[in-house]
Amino acid sequence: MEIRGKRCLEFIQGQASGDISEETKNKDVLFCDEKGFVITNATVINNETLEVIIKRDVAEILKWELEKYSKFYKCEIIIKEKNISGIYDGVDFIKTTSMSNAPINKKNWDLLKLLHFDIDISKDMSLKNRPNEFGYSLEKYVSFTKGCYRGQEIIARLKYLGSKNSTLAIFKNLNADEKNQLLKIGKKIFEIELENMSYGQYIFKSFEHANKLLKSKLAASQSL
């Protein structure tokens, strides 16, 4: 996606959770609605225009959400398809429109992002959960020192109130009975299929029981 207009930086600063005026060229951010529900995660590239790297199937949703405000800044929002390279250095995930010498293939990228609780939002996940329920690192995606942005009040509460004693967990290849067991003690965040294997992410107030029930199906977990 491309944002054009003399005030495009000012416009996106008021929409994205991260500070895109910082010197770093590629900035990971979240776009949320007023209630703090995640529209999508994104990488913003600050060039002559602003490029916003997101999944193709969520582009129309983000465009519609941004166009509620773009007219006040006289900005144009254009959906454009580009080849994106993904790099994982063992610590950080980096997306770039430049060709990389060591890009990760899409299947490996999606699985790595999933298991590190840094999922790239698709259409089916959009506007259904808040950042903490996905497991996003607020230190990575959010600036708590910049000015106002959409969803700021809710996201600030997530930082200061947190989700005490909650645990996120990803299970693989659950059958219907196993899913029902987990829904009795937790909340499903999303399901996704990768490499002919299904994965489901859940959040639990108490993880001990879920872990005992389905330890053999556990793919990853993270305390909040």
Short description:
The protein is α+β, with helices and mostly antiparallel strands. It contains 8 helices and 11 strands.
Structural class designation: alpha+beta
Total strands: the figure is 11
Please count the helical segments: 8
CA-CA gap between termini: 32 Å
CATH architecture verdict of the largest domain: 2-Layer Sandwich
**In angstroms, what is the radius of gyration?**
18 Å
Protein name: Aminomethyltransferase folate-binding domain-containing protein
Organism: SAR86 cluster bacterium
InterPro entries: YgfZ/GCV_T_CS (IPR017703), YgfZ/GcvT (IPR045179)
Task: Furnish the topology, listing elements before pairings.
Blueprint: E1 2-4, H1 8-13, E2 26-32, E3 38-46, E4 50-53, H2 59-70, E5 76-78, E6 85-88, E7 93-96, H3 106-115, H4 131-134, H5 138-141, H6 152-161, E8 167-172, H7 176-185, E9 186-194, E10 197-204, H8 208-214, E11 218-223
Antiparallel strand pairs: 1-4, 1-5, 2-3, 3-4, 6-7, 8-10, 8-11, 9-10
